[in-house]
Each structure stands twice: as C-alpha cells, then as structure tokens.
Amino acid sequence: MATKKKGLARELMGWVAYVALLILAVNLITTYVGQRVRVEGTSMEQTLHDGDALLLNKISYRFKDPERYDIIVFPFQGNEDEKYIKRIIGMPGETIQIDDTGTIYINGEVLNEDYGAEVIEDPGTAAQPITLGDDEYFVMGDNRNWSSDSRAEEVGLIKRDKILGKAFIRIWPLKSFKVLKHQ
Question: What is the rounded average pLDDT of the residues 132-139?
C-alpha cells in the first residue's frame, strides 16, 4: 500500500510539473513570440474587419525595424489594456503632411498608396507638417475617415518601444484565413 501511494504521489507530481511547464511555455510564447489579437471597430476596413482574429508577430521587430505599410499593434496612450491596430505611413525622421484635398505627403513627395478606402476629409494635426523623431512612426487606419490614428492628438505619434508587434495572419473567420499584405 505504501508503495502504491508513493507511485501515485510521483505520478501526481509529474502531472503538476508538466502543467507548470506548459503554463510557463505559453506565457513565454505570448510574451515574446506571438499573440492572438481581435479587431474591434471598422478603422482598418477593407483590409481588416470588426471581429477578425489575428496572430501578432512579436519577435520580428527584435531583429529588424518596422517598415512602411506594416500593420502594427500598439497600446492606446494611457490605457495599456486597449490595443490599436493601424498601418505605418510615416517613418522616423520623415515629415508628414496631409493637404486639404486629402493627399498625403512624405518629405514633400506624394505618397502613392492604395490602402486608404476614401479621400481623407480631415487631416487633423497633419494639416501642418509633422516631423517624426528618430523613434517615431505616423500610423493611419485604412478606413481613413473612420479611424482614430496619428492625426488625432489623443493617439499621436507612436514611439518604437510602444509597438507590440506586426499583425501577421488573419485566423478568424476561417473563410478569410490569410497572411496579411503589408507592402
């Protein structure tokens, strides 16, 4: 009987160790490698839709810098639990301006891109030239007139260290499963 109890205790300890290692592995993966995020709202339509589930690549920016048109996730300023999903438009050191026709200029040159769903009606703070610092990014939603992004003072410019990662794959709904286009 004592041998049976020792065997049972040993097996129970094995299971406890297994579960603890599993929890540790999941925690390490979601902290440093990848994470599931959910799109809330319409600011990234037509690319992403309300309710889409994405996998966030948290490791690639440890080895390379973000690039123009990357779809990134970052916390809303002042609320680390609220996450924003936007596209990088302006890179560190560039000057961004949006004129009254809705045209985006980068360093005085027209930005030729087709992510914006419509003509920009409100340039916000970008009506005047904005020069980005060495670690700052200017982000916008693809649904330009329904997006709270770097044009709004409450969002502003995104510092490099605030970027949580790059949206990588849409995993839900299953019929829309795909690797996301960034360039």
Answer: 97
